[in-house]
Amino acid sequence: MSKFYITTSIAYVNAPPHIGYALELAQADVLARYHRLLGDDTWFLTGTDEHGTKIAKAAAAANLSPEKFTNQISEKFLSLAKVLNISNDNFIRTSDQKRHWPSAQKLWLELAERGDLYKKNYGGLYCIGHEAFIKKSDLKDDVCPLHKTKPEKIEEENWFFKLTSYKKQLKKIIESDELQILPASRKSEVLNLLDDAEDISFSRPSNPPTTAFSGTPSEAVAGEIKWGIPVPDDATQTMYVWADALSNYISAIGYADDNSQSLFKKFWPADIHLVGKDILRFHAIVWPAMLLSASLPLPKSICVHGFVTVDGEKMSKTIGNVVDPFKIIEKYGREVVRYYLLREIPSDEDGDFSEEKLKERYNGDLANGLGNLVQRVATLIENNLDGKLIYDNKLIEPSVTQKISDIVAKYKQNMESFRLHEALTNVWELISFANVYVDDKKPWAAIKHDEKEFLIIITNLMMTLHNIMFLLSPFLPETAENIAKTFGGVLKPEIDNGYEFIVKKIEGLFPRIS
């Protein structure tokens, strides 16, 4: 059995989740469910990034300790995963001293032993929004173009990681697709960024200073540090957020665990890191360089999604257009929200969220398209076959088989190339084909003069609908299950000859809304 390990980025908990993170969760969930269908031993990780200056400031603004603040916000991200029916196997928090800290500190020690960490005084422009030092050339009118804030001038002594030692090696790895970056435009972007890459700050001064650390990572004491992980063997420094956060992908599967049966030995390297375009540099340059330094395998691919705008504008608290995913899910249902995000928004580009467009997709695609097809097939079986169809593969038409085969091939190609919206479009191609097939064949007329012809029509429809259920299941798992239950069955790859489809109930899957 092949293994498949997929991760989302871990959400930064300075604010509650918005609709953009719901998109990333849904995309990763589709890929995880798809690989389970393929029979792969799948591990799906998500979680929260809970350290850093921005969080400490947000906690202070809320009049809470960083610990209480992150507990509250992290719970909201965990709740979103549950409400959206995300099938993650694990949820990692970087504030978890038992699970995360030991691995983060072990990785630090590996980099130090390699000679890739050094200490120096540094002065630069620090963007709180990025949690990173940025160049003056990156600013627009002295303001960060992404966060619309002016960076702070900071001079301090930090630990630095020798990123430049790995530039040439990384360039070859990325150019050869040993580390695949999708879409291809993002690969070009990373190669351009790599040309200008410099050694990167890996720590910030602790205030108050940390207790000196030596020996096992678990000896670190949380109460004695600034909000972050203490640097091993240096009481004056706290791990910089990226040195800390990126290691979640190995900490969650037990990198610090010496057990030969650990999940790390089973699942690493990751098959897919799914991230937003704003953190691509860290995942495609900094993280792989860290892994090379530690002599660890690199992830196989990085899939990059864009931003979600709202009615054409970037989400902003100032504008007041931040979409609360919990409210949208409560109003329309999670399957509808999943469908809209995964169909309307291109997987690898920016996309727009609009309630009006959501309603259009609901009525046009879910109600009139899928719901109508299920209703028609179920009604035909109930009214003309006493609710039971015995499947006979001899009745399947070669043209129908070929159509399904062609669409499935396109679907698989799109799934493998991170074109999830196109794969979902392929499913609707099959739904449209089936609805047109009903209109052309007119089974309600055939039953009056030729029962055999009716059986041929309904059997081909049922076989097509079975394939629709299966292809749809990674995207809309509950809908696929409900369709299967309508015909008295369960989801499975193949239909056995002689299998009995028994109509259990006929209810509108997606009643039209106004």
TrEMBL record:
InterPro entries assigned to the protein according to its UniProt record, in alphabetical order? Anticodon_Met, M/V/L/I-tRNA-synth_anticd-bd, Met-tRNA_synth_2, Methionyl/Leucyl_tRNA_Synth, MetRS_core, Rossmann-like_a/b/a_fold, tRNAsynth_Ia_anticodon-bd
| Keyword Glycosyltransferase annotated | no
**Domain called Methionyl/Leucyl tRNA synthetase: residue spans:** 5-136, 137-377
Molecular functions per Gene Ontology? ATP binding; methionine-tRNA ligase activity
Q: Where is the Methionyl/Valyl/Leucyl/Isoleucyl-tRNA synthetase anticodon-binding domain?
A: 402-487
Pfam families membership: Anticodon_1 (PF08264), tRNA-synt_1g (PF09334)
Its GO biological process annotations read: methionyl-tRNA aminoacylation
Question: EC annotation?
Answer: 6.1.1.10
Which keywords belong to this entry? Aminoacyl-tRNA synthetase, ATP-binding, Ligase, Nucleotide-binding, Protein biosynthesis
- Into which family does the record put it? Belongs to the class-I aminoacyl-tRNA synthetase family.
**Protein's name in the database:** methionine--tRNA ligase
